[in-house]
Amino acid sequence: MIPRVKGTDDILPPESAKWRTLLRAFDDIAARYGYDLAVMPVLETTELFARGVGAATEVVEKQMYTFEDQGGRSVTLRPEFTAGIVRAYLEAGMSGVVKLAAAGPQFRYEQPQKGRRRQFYQVDLECIGDPDPRADVEIIEMSQRLFAAVGVPEVSVHLNSIGDAGDRAEYRDLLRNYLRRVSGDLSADSRRRIDDNPLRVLDSKADAAVVAGAPVPLDHLGPESASHFAAVRSGLEEAGIPYEIAPRLVRGLDYYNRTVFEFFSPAFEAAQSSLGGGGRYDPLAELVGSRTAVAGVGVALGCERIVAAMPNPARPRLDVFVAVADTQRSGTAAAWVRFLRGSGWRVDWTGGDRSLKAQFKAADRSGAAVVAIIGEEWDAGQVRVKRLATGEEAAMNIEEVGAWLKR
Ligand code: HAM
Questions:
Q1: Whole-structure pTM value
Q2: In degrees, to the nearest 5, what angle opens at C-alpha 85 toward C-alphas 83 and 89?
């Protein structure tokens, strides 16, 4: 036995049924809001993340799967989508507003636990080229729609603005001064960050009590960031989306400015287990080499965490399981199975050459809503159907089965 790599998962039935529901709902919502599919490489150059996500971030410092390929290039298994998608936008020479949706595995070398994996799956939405606060609202609205669509209720939105580079230059000095004053009480990690990444100290779990009195970015926004944030807030209110202001939320990646947000579910106790997060990243394009600024805002949602909060599927796995009482009718049964599948029903069968008892067992195990039994009536164009949940049984002409199933 060769076991799987630590921190990775085999996602198999029945659990995988929830994944199918989630990925379909994501695809549907993305399409309804005009987000086209982006299918992105898993491998990117290491430099993309070092510059885009930021060399002083935890992701780049400690968590990347980086190696040299056979040609001596340093490549990295993507730890997130955003830097790669903005790279693709620039590399394809795109311009104007482009809205993209992506789904796939990410890789971060973390201490594995439930909901914290080394290979994990994200669904991701990026609205590139749009500085308008309405785009921020749209991204949050879509995320909430997705949670509702897959039956994860009561997800709360934690919202903040960290201002833009100009606002932060002044604020960072204030924060550094404060942190230096309390540095004796800070963890070693946070003390190290005072110089290179002081904002990260704000959302350090270990130092929550010490930073509770620190100045927060929200109180130091310039007029443009402040009015942008006010518009995001009123947009959310118009959309009927409740949110909480989280003044110490700064997010772990360097490319953000202005709006940042995270989603939390009461299904999880640990404060670390956000279902997703995102924000505005107007500086990112230039960080990865664009000569002109390109605005952007997006979100990534963690599929393992959403699935863990999802209820079991209410809808049966199959619409119909076809059982054949007599092998001599297997051939025409096969044609009918093919016809039903072609008409959009979810259908399975054993091929009809096992005992009827064995076929019923298989039907039970299959999670089908209905068993259709092909017996003697078949020769007169009829089939017997039985709803497994209620035991309701009927015989009918095969042309009527579709309408009966719909009921
Ligand atoms: P992030 O906060 O690093 O943001 O990750 C987003 C979500 O991915 C997290 O809230 C969590 O649900 C999930 N996640 C992260 N790490 C793990 C892990 N080790 N195991 C399981 N789930 C995990 C980003 O990745 C940004 N690219 C989001 C974004 C998109 N910002 C703008 N556009």
A1: 0.96
A2: 115
